[in-house]
Each structure stands twice: as structure tokens, then as C-alpha cells.
Amino acid sequence: MLLLLQSPDPFEPPSFLYLTITCPIKLLLQRAYRLLTYLRTAPAPLDPSIRIVCISDTHSLTSDVPPGDVLIHAGDLTNNGSIASIQEQLNWLSSLPHTHKIAIAGNHDTFLDPRTRPSLLESDRTGYLDWKDVRYLQHSTITLSISLPPPPSPSSQPPSPSRTRHVRIYGAPQIPACGPSSTSAFQYPRGLDAWSETVPEDTSILVTHTPPKYHLDLPLPSGMGCEHLLAEVKRVKPALHVFGHIHWGAGQHICWWDGCQEAYERGMQRKPGWSRGFLDWRLWREVVRVVVYGLKGLVWDKVWGGQGRNTRLVNAAQMVGNSGKLGNPVQIVEI
To answer: What is the pTM of this model?
Structure first.
């Protein structure tokens, strides 16, 4: 009966009934963590702020994209990964009005990975790409100097000079294996550490295709994101981490690097076992810790106005599930 409640596709979320039956305590842990972090006050952007427009997983389709200072595409520009389909997406991105445009590859962008390029027909891998004004990042960093309008000044005084902010963006496409190695680009064996010490410590914005495990992921029953990427994000603590890949995880979330987050992740790593977690005292301990540390952070935030280190996580996938249609909102962040 449980098999009837669970989709055979790992990229489809299990039903609430299936999760209630198989891992009810981990489901409780996840809901408590999401509620307590949602109630906390989001960090205020710097002044002047930078408007970041985030998209991902467009899969050869286009959408209406709001204006902003920086446009980020977090991979899976295409479905078949051919030169022609990638170029069509680049032409579309280039036509948008954003001054700065950043893109990385996803597992569907076959041509961009030399290991999977031979799987394409010769006609689909012959030629070259014109990136136009799109900056492509593949295990690389770029520093953007963003000119922002001057603050308003009284009419009796000369105009204020324009202001400039600098942001460092690091992009990397690799993902835990989820498809055939010959056709799915930038894969590494699930469980392998492909991330430790790879992201520069001065990174302001991190762009990856895969999510960090358990965050804007399909976290239950076991998670599709990468635990080693999660550890790297925690080490660097960028202001913003943009990704995609898991269409059902689209949205935004503030990850506060504190005891609540640590307890949540430890609890999510637990195996429910035959008791479905009811007899796992270590899992119950992490549930209690999430509540205690979460309430402590909430009081510190609301009463005392204190805010600890945090990263805004953005799953920018535009594809709605596996529908073949774009419909998830474009994610906009002010930093």
C-alpha cells in the first residue's frame, strides 16, 4: 500500500499521507523548523541595496522577467543541451534589460560538460556559443561593480554623487548523480564530497544548480540536495545562495546559522527505522532543540532586535514540477 502512496519519480514530492505514515517525527521536525524560521524578521538590505532577479530551470522556455540590477540563471537553461537550444536561451537572456547577467549550467545543459558532449548528435555539438553579455561561471568567480542612483538631496544643494557597490559571485554547476552519466551533465556520485574548500571565503553570492540538502529541497524522506554543499555554504556563509534543480522546492528561506539550524539538520539525518522514529530518543531530542533554539532566536529577534549570521537561500526554479510549463514566480532579492 505504501508503494501506491509514493511516486516512483524521486523529483516528485511524496504525499503528506505517505510521510505521516513513514516518518511522522521527521515531518514534525521539518514543520517546526519551517514555522520558527518563517516567524523571524528577515535581515534588512544594505543601503544602497542591490536588486537581484533569480531564475533557474527554464528548460528552453521563456518568461516575463522583472527588472533589476543583476539577473542570475542557476542552470538547466535547456532540455536537450544542444548548442542551438543553449544559444536560444542566451539570445533571450541577452535581450533582457539587466545590466549584469550571470548564468551557470545545469544537468540538462549537456554541451557545456565535455564528458557528456559526445552523447549529442554531431549536428547538436558542432559550432560555438555566443554568450553576448551573459557571464558564464563554471567553478569561477566574478566581481561586479554596480552603479546605483545617488541618494536624494535637498534642492538647495548640488546633486549627490552616484554610489557603487561591489559583489563577488561564485558559480559552480555540479550535482549529485540523478540520471545517466553519459547524458546528464556535471554529475558526481551521490555521497561524494565535491564541494569542500571550493568556494572562496569572500563570496557574496553563491550560485549552484543543486540545493543544499534539506533546504528548499525535497527534504523528506531523505533529501535530494547535497550535504557537502550544505557544509560549504555553512563554512562560507554568503549573503545569498541561488540554486534550482528541485522544481518543487521553489521559493526563499532565511537560514540562520545557529543551534536551531544545527538541530534540524542532525534530526533530518536520522533514519526513522521500524518504529518510524517514535522510539528514537535522539530524533526527539533534536525536535526539542529545534523548538527551544527556535524560540530563543525568535525572542532575541523580536524583543531584543538581535540577528545572527544568516544566508538567504533562493530556489529559483521556474518549472512547475514536471509539468513542462513555467509558472513558479521569479525570485527577487534585495541585498
So the answer is: 0.94
